[in-house]
Amino acid sequence: MLKDFLHVIWMFLLVTFVPRYIHTVVPIPNPISMLFLAIISIKFVDKDKLNVFGVSLSYSKRSVFFGILAFTFLCLSSLILVPFNILFSINLQTLKEIYPRNLLLASILLFLFNSIEEMIFRGYIINKLTKIGENAILTPIALFISGFLHAIWHLNKFLNFRFYFISISLGVISGIIFIISKRNILGPCLFHWLTNIFNNSVAILNSIFSYLF
After folding, report:
1. What does the pLDDT look like over 168-208, one tens digit per residue?
2. How many domains does the chain have?
3. CA nearest neighbour of 117 among 15, 24, 4
4. Burial category of 179 from C-beta neighbours within 10 Å (exposed 0-12, middle 13-18, buried 19 and up)
5. How many whole angstroms separate alpha carbon 95 and alpha carbon 116?
6. Angle at CA 12, nearest 5°, toward 112 and 56?
7. Domain contains 22
8. Residue 27: CB partners within 8 Å, gap ≥ 6?
């Protein structure tokens, strides 16, 4: 258990700091560097199989169902139970350069990048921390650690505690989807992607109207 926990910390440090340094030398998107570094670490440091990411066709329909279901409940709760701007932090400038002709490409890239994050922070970390099995104590701890590490991985949000709370909460939900989907990562990837699309929907609409009018 201790060895797996140390592997998790090593992976977190590796994918948090090294890709940012690589990007200053070679203009490679951070998520792409993260994926390659994670694969190398799993093969040569962990000496594990890549299925630790949770990428599998097994239970994929179940995973997609729970991912969409969780997103639906999240949308309803944001519109009914709490003010919209408390649950989601919308930045109108996020996609200001995206015009309608680029929306499809942007959405595909967003799904790819979100999926890489989920493979590492949900698939790898939760699988590692619950390697000895799921139980009432270990699994919730693994879900929280996964969400917490993913939150602080966003270095540009340093000490933004509102963001941390939202990110950890969404991370835990994503982790629950992963667990109940028999550790298939597709549902969490879809949930993460849809959440980001919803989060930036106002910015997307703003860019479309700016382009048209």
Report:
1. 999 999 999 999 999 999 999 999 999 988 877 655 555 55
2. 1
3. 15
4. middle
5. 20
6. 45
7. no
8. none
CA atoms lying within 13 Å on the CB side of residue 202? 9
* 36 domain-assigned: no
Identify whether 11 is part of a domain. no
Contacts of 81 (CB under 8 A, 6+ apart): none
Give the structural domain span for 152.
54-212
| 183: its two tokens | 């550790």
Which phi and psi (to 5°) does residue 6 adopt? -65, -35
Is there a contact between 34 and 15 (Cβ–Cβ < 8 Å)?
yes
Residue/partner pairs of 72-77 with CB below 8 Å, 24 or more apart: 74/170, 74/173, 74/195, 75/198
Cα–Cα distance for residue pair 173/71, rounded to 1 Å: 10
At 14, give phi and psi (nearest 5°): -65, -50
44 domain residue, yes or no: no
* Angle, vertex CA 72, rays to CA 133 and CA 97, nearest 5: 105
What's the distance, CA 169 to chain centroid?
12
Taking only the tens place, the pLDDT of each residue in 68-123 is: 999 998 877 766 654 444 444 444 444 444 444 566 777 888 899 999 999 999 99
Q: How far apart are CA 12 and CA 58, in angstroms?
A: 27
| 82 phi-psi bin (left φ>0, alpha ψ -120 to 50, beta other) | beta
Residues 6+ apart with CB under 8 A from 46: 7, 52
Helix (H) or strand (E) holding 47: none
